[in-house]
Amino acid sequence: MKKHSLILAVLWICSISFCYSQSSTTEIKEDFKPSSKNQPGKEYPQVNSQGYARFRVEAPKAQSVNVSLGLGGQGGTDLTKDADGVWTGTTAGPMDEGFHYYHLTIDGGVFNDPGAKNYYGSTRWESGIEIPAHDQEFYALKDVPHGNVQQILFPSPSTNTSRRAFVYTPPGYSQESEKRYPVLYLQHGWGEDETAWSNQGHANLIMDNLIAEGKVEPFLIVMTYGMTNEIKFGGLRDFKIEPFQTVLVDELIPYVDANFRTLSDRDHRAMGGLSMGGMETHRITLNKPEVFSRYALLSGGIYTPEELNDSLKPDLIFISAGSKENPDRVKNAVSALQDAGYQAVSFVSEGTAHEFQTWRRSLYELAPMLFQTK
After folding, report:
1. Distance from C-alpha of 25 to C-alpha of 105, rounded to nearest angstrom
2. What percent of the chain has pLDDT over 70?
3. Where is the secretion signal located (predicted)?
């Protein structure tokens, strides 16, 4: 477990470092457009066709303005002040495709960009920016039947409170009276919460589009807070899974099964998560193999045949990462699982690191195979 915790700590470090794509010697194209994550009517931040981002902040009395990009906001781009007190600047290189957190540091104080929408990450609401991806159609909002993402509040005796979760139900769920569905319990990463997979990950749109194309058998997705954010950097080995495991297995799952039309057996229940949510998935599925039959780790570690030998055999193990993470480790782990007789699949997102484009693509690959007919 210590080795697994060290690996996840390294992934955290990756997640808080903002890495540009490989530097280009070509001239920056002046075809900048407002980011799709901007507040209504706001022109900045902007992105261009090469993946560069440009920022503009009105702060006439400020002495310094920096844009810190990535989960945790390390490093960033210094902005330059003009005669009117407007600060502007462009990233040093093109950014990876997809979604990125960022915030402003103005004279040492941390602020969100008033031009951008906010998303919960780094244990706070951060500004967000979207670099258009070449494959963005799979999570685009299209004219297809849409499912519903609804908030639920479920009782939690173990924490002496009501807790929140979001449940995705597929198109047509509310019109049907008898059909029952499999369920994926899908976890966010460190610094995030139960809003991440819908807001940053577009899990609902990914599912809507796959269902409309006939590529996936519909299932429910349940997203709840993984109780991760009290852990500080360097303290991962001290994280105790038991409190969240109790909330998930003993409280949330029975509530969902009682209030939604689920197929409430192991064969129709999966668990997956990104980053630290993958670590939680790893621990809980090993502790409770009688509860879940399908496991998914998205930039969240690996399974080995040795640790699975004494467990009920899962029907599917899916392990993914970005090509800028450690893809060989994922591929080698899946190869070892396959050699040991497990149904295991690896996926590598090309050109991405420990970020939401990796996890969007991972869900897109995972969903069609998750509950396919045996």
Report:
1. 29
2. 91
3. 1-21
DSSP annotation string for 24-83: --SPPPS--EE-TTBPTT---SEE-TTS-EEEEEE-TT-S-EEEEESTT--S-EE-EE-T
Q: Is-contact 219 170, C-beta < 8 A? A: yes
Token duo for residue 316: 């599917």
pTM here? Answer: 0.92
Specify the pairing of strand 98-106 against strand 124-131: antiparallel
**Domain boundaries of the chain, sorted by first residue:** 2-132, 138-370
Q: Which position has the higher pLDDT, 28 or 71?
A: 28
- Tokens representing 317? 């193990």
Tell me whether strands 98-106 and 46-47 are parallel, antiparallel or unpaired: unpaired
Nearest by Cα to 298 from 268, 265, 273: 273
Q: Which CATH superfamily is domain 2-132 in?
A: Immunoglobulins (2.60.40.10)
From the candidate CATH numbers 2.30.36.70, 3.40.630.30, 3.40.50.720, 3.40.50.1820, the one assigned to the domain spanning 138-370: 3.40.50.1820
Q: Which residue from 101, 98, 111, 99 is spatially nearest to 73, judged by alpha carbons?
A: 101
